[in-house]
């Protein structure tokens, strides 16, 4: 790093002093807090994005959003070259950058990291960043801070893609680095084309839905509803009624959205008795989560069809196509190829869903809570499916399975055009293009659910009857230090402090809290069990135990 570059960082960073008494940490959601505290952070993440681009010699994404948080919050996250989240190895550096006290300390941190990572400022590659933001009023000023940070790295350039869903930006980064067309229009065209392909491949004999059978979508008063309004007109025959778009009078995520619906299990604002029996869905604020629900008569309570149910629907569909392909006979002799289908869940998944999937003969594994763990594990399969109950998840198709499917399609095109085998291949290929493989995406997820329901001829009621959720209760317990809890077996067993797991066994038979998730055969038993375990946690770790 030459003196001109040092001076540029020192000069520009002096315009973005960090707020006093605020310490930020980069996690799965990136940085996220009150928007008024984030200008210096956005500036510094702009620098981070440029350095990441130089290190990887690839395009990097920077998204300004606070997802399902209240409208006064905002945040920022990085999209790596594959469209996924920032490498965990860079998270400590992100923390250090955000919390550097002054320009000199900031420069020192950057120089040390550049040396450690062997990042060159002198090669032919210039850093390149894609920028996006959601509909929050604070987004525009924070975007300008990010641009200043990027521009403080000599030669770095950015492309402002405007207002996007978070998954759109991740998709664009992945597509661009794969050499594919990567504009927002390309995104819309790929999703709509893939959806139409799946609809065209609906099995003979399965009747389509009646024309009035629509899906009613809650857009969380955010960006997702706006984008769905564009996409729905490109899908041909899909009837969508959109409510709670950002163009209405509602407030982002206030009494609306997937997070609200999934946690509160009540219908969002704008829904009522007239929606009883209709297929309803809800996005979160930046459209990376999706849940479905059914409005109940004479009640605000809903039947929730959550991420576990979506995972089960997708797994059933993928398994059905793979089962058809097991018996493919090809003329050219070759080694048999049997794609490995894996299902990845966390300890928060409802036990009934896990039992259902295992009873289908599927390989179900658990990871610690967090998308980064789920995504990494799913990528180890030929086809890996992961979803959290909150509606965030996706399907990953390996390069090898896509190559195999393309080869099978070529062979079947010459020998068995229009056969069930070829249709199964084409369905899997269409699904791989419809689902956003970079990150969970409410738009692509909605279209895949709708296509599969058409494929099966199922109503939302029949889908919801795949299995009955075990009653559950989730609580938070205030503790002195949540890091004192050490878990094993994907957070299903407590190792430390000693004794608490034995006590829990007896019972069962980012603030300093411990989350307790309990299941039982009735809601009353689940509530009682959660309460018992919460008391045990408080006994071992709670605020009272420290006094």
TrEMBL record:
GO terms for biological process: carbohydrate metabolic process; UDP-N-acetylglucosamine biosynthetic process. Its EC number is 5.4.2.3. Its cofactor is Mg(2+). Residues 58-89, 125-178 form the Alpha-D-phosphohexomutase alpha/beta/alpha domain. Mg(2+) binds at residues 67, 284, 286, 288. Pathway: Nucleotide-sugar biosynthesis; UDP-N-acetyl-alpha-D-glucosamine biosynthesis; N-acetyl-alpha-D-glucosamine 1-phosphate from alpha-D-glucosamine 6-phosphate (route I): step 2/2. It catalyses: N-acetyl-alpha-D-glucosamine 1-phosphate = N-acetyl-D-glucosamine 6-phosphate. Keywords: Isomerase, Magnesium, Metal-binding, Phosphoprotein. It comes from the Eukaryota. Belongs to the phosphohexose mutase family. Interconverts GlcNAc-6-P and GlcNAc-1-P. This is Phosphoacetylglucosamine mutase.
């Amino acid at each position: 790093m030459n003196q001109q570059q040092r001076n540029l960082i020192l000069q520009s960073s002096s315009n973005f002093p960090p707020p006093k008494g605020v310490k930020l940490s980069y996690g799965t959601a990136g940085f996220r807090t009150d928007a008024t505290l984030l200008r210096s952070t956005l500036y510094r993440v702009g620098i981070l994005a440029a350095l990441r681009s130089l290190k990887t010699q690839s395009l990097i994404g920077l998204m300004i959003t606070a997802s399902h948080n209240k409208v006064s919050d905002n945040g920022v996250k990085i999209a790596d070259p594959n469209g996924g989240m920032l490498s965990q190895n860079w998270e400590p550096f992100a923390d250090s950058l955000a919390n550097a006290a002054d320009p000199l300390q900031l420069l020192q941190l950057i120089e040390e990291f550049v040396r450690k990572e062997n990042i060159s400022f002198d090669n032919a590659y210039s850093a390149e960043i894609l920028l996006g933001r959601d509909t929050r009023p604070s987004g525009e000023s924070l975007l300008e801070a990010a641009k200043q940070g990027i521009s403080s790295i000599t030669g770095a350039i950015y492309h402002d893609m405007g207002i996007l869903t978070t998954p759109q930006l991740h998709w664009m980064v992945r597509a661009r680095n794969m050499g594919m067309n990567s504009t927002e229009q390309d995104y819309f065209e790929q999703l709509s084309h893939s959806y139409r392909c799946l609809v065209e491949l609906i099995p003979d004999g399965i009747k389509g839905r009646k024309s009035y059978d629509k899906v009613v979508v809650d857009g969380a008063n955010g960006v997702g509803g706006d984008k769905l309004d564009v996409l729905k007109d490109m899908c041909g025959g899909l009837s969508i009624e959109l409510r709670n778009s950002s163009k209405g009078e509602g407030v982002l995520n206030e009494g609306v959205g997937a997070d609200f619906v999934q946690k509160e299990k009540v219908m969002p604002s704008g829904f009522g008795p007239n929606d009883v029996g209709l297929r309803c869905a809800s996005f979160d604020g930046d459209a990376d989560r999706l849940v479905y629900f059914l409005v109940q008569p004479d009640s605000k309570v809903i039947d929730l069809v959550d991420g576990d149910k979506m995972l089960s629907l997708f797994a059933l569909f993928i398994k059905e196509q793979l089962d058809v392909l097991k018996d493919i006979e090809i003329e050219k002799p070759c080694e048999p190829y049997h794609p490995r289908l894996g299902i990845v869940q966390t300890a928060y998944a409802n036990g009934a869903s896990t039992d259902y999937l295992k009873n289908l003969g599927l390989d179900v594994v658990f990871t610690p809570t967090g998308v980064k763990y789920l995504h990494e594990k799913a990528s180890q399969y030929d086809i890996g499916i992961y979803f959290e109950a909150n509606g965030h998840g996706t399907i990953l198709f390996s390069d090898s399975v896509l190559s195999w499917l393309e080869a099978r399609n070529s062979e079947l095109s010459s020998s068995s055009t229009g056969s069930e085998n070829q249709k199964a291949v084409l369905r899997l290929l269409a699904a791989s293009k419809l689902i956003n493989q970079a990150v969970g995406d409410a738009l692509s997820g909605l279209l895949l659910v709708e296509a599969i329901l058409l494929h099966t001829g199922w109503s939302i009621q029949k889908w919801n009857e795949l299995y009955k959720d075990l009653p559950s209760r989730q609580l938070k317990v205030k503790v002195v230090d949540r890091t004192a809890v050490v878990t094993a077996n994907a957070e299903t067993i407590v190792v430390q402090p000693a004794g608490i797991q034995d006590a829990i066994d007896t019972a069962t038979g980012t603030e300093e809290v411990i989350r307790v998730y309990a299941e039982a055969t009735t809601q009353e038993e689940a509530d009682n069990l959660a309460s018992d375990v919460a008391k045990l946690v408080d006994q071992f770790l709670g605020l009272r135990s420290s006094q």
